[in-house]
């Protein structure tokens, strides 16, 4: 594992750090917008008082924190693998290059000693999973790896009720920020009640520290709603998602190819509005994650219960 100088200094000095995934760079957006957004997310973390640590596997080595030159190279590379728990070790062992999903980023963060990770939305139970058994490894990772993940809920293309049921079964805390329902990615509100609600970063940080003190496995999902001016109402998105799902089924798209196809098709059907909302929610999550990372440090320094 190689840490960037910025991340290594932060770890040495006990400064707050926020892990960031790299799949959004390689599989989420076209060049050069992917690089521009990656830089904006990192800058947002810095403006929030924390150090960004974008995680990726490059030529067989796990990198925690990328230089700007590495970010630019990754953003332009072809054939970059999409890595989760099942294939990150194989990619490293064979000298490959891969971008980390939520699950793989959590693994990298844990190995580096990073508590907080900001992303757009987690994976979950795909629609039709009762037949396909297509369930993201992100859910099990949340139950096993002690990292607090800040996201705008699960991606709205998923079967959200089943996703929340699986997380409940796995014992993963799902914390809605400032509201009583779980946000639905591009939409701030949903009909799904939040199991937990917290209104301040300090509360989320205290819960993270307490879980560690109790020896509880797994992390927390912090469901942070997209800002109201940037959201796409659920009633507008529903028919668009249904159309994209029907097209994916008709074309026989499955497994890891499903999510990139759906997101690209929804981008087309919303005339780019979904990507604009995606960028807004990622930046919003980066801001909150930086605050939580700082508050975890405060809690530990103050000797808070469980610290």
What would you say this structure looks like, in words?
It contains 13 helices and 11 strands. It has 307 residues and is α/β, with parallel strands linked by helices. It has one domain: Indigoidine synthase fold, CATH 3.40.1790. Strands 1, 2, 3, 4, 5, 6, 7, 8, 9, 10 and 11 form an 11-stranded mixed sheet that branches.
Which secondary structure elements does this structure contain, and how are they paired or packed?
Elements: E1 2-3, H1 5-13, E2 17-20, H2 23-26, H3 33-47, E3 51-58, E4 61-64, H4 68-76, E5 81-83, H5 88-93, E6 98-100, H6 102-112, E7 116-118, H7 129-132, H8 137-144, E8 148-151, H9 160-169, E9 174-177, E10 196-198, H10 201-214, E11 220-223, H11 234-250, H12 258-269, H13 273-301
How many domains, in number, for the residues? 1
CATH superfamily: Indigoidine synthase domain
**Relative strand content:** 5-15%
Nearest-integer average pLDDT: 96
Report low-confidence residues grouped into runs of 5 or more. none
For the termini, the CA-CA separation is 27 Å
Number of strands: 11
Q: What is the architecture at the second tier of CATH?
A: 3-Layer(aba) Sandwich
Helical percent range? Answer: 40-55%
């Amino acid at each position: 594992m190689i840490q960037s100088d910025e991340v290594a200094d932060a770890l040495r000095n006990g400064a707050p750090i926020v892990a960031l995934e790299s799949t959004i760079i390689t599989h989420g957006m076209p060049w050069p917008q992917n690089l521009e957004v990656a830089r904006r997310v990192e800058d947002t973390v810095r403006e929030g008082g924390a150090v960004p640590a974008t995680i990726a596997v490059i030529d067989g080595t796990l990198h925690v924190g990328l230089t700007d030159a590495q970010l630019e190279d990754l953003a332009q590379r072809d054939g970059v693998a999409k890595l989760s728990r099942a294939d990150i070790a194989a990619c490293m062992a064979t000298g490959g290059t891969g971008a980390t999903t939520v699950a793989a980023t959590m693994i990298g963060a844990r190995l580096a000693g990073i508590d907080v990770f900001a992303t757009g939305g987690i994976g979950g139970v795909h629609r039709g999973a009762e037949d396909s058994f297509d369930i993201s490894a992100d859910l099990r990772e949340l139950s096993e790896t002690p990292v607090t993940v800040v996201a705008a809920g699960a991606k709205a293309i998923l079967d959200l009720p089943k996703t929340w049921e699986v997380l409940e079964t796995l014992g993963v805390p799902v914390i809605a920020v400032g509201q009583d329902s779980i946000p639905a990615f591009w939409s701030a509100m949903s009909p799904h009640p939040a199991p937990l609600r917290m209104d301040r970063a300090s509360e989320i940080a205290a819960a993270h520290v307490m879980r560690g003190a109790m020896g509880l496995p797994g992390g927390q999902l912090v469901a942070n709603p997209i800002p109201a001016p940037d959201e796409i109402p659920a009633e507008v998105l529903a028919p668009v998602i249904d159309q994209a799902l029907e097209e994916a089924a008709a074309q026989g798209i499955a497994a890891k190819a499903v999510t990139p196809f759906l997101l690209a098709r929804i981008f087309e059907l919303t005339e780019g509005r979904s990507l604009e909302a995606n960028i807004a929610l990622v930046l919003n999550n980066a801001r909150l994650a930086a605050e939580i990372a700082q508050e975890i440090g405060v809690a530990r320094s103050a000797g808070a219960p469980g610290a």
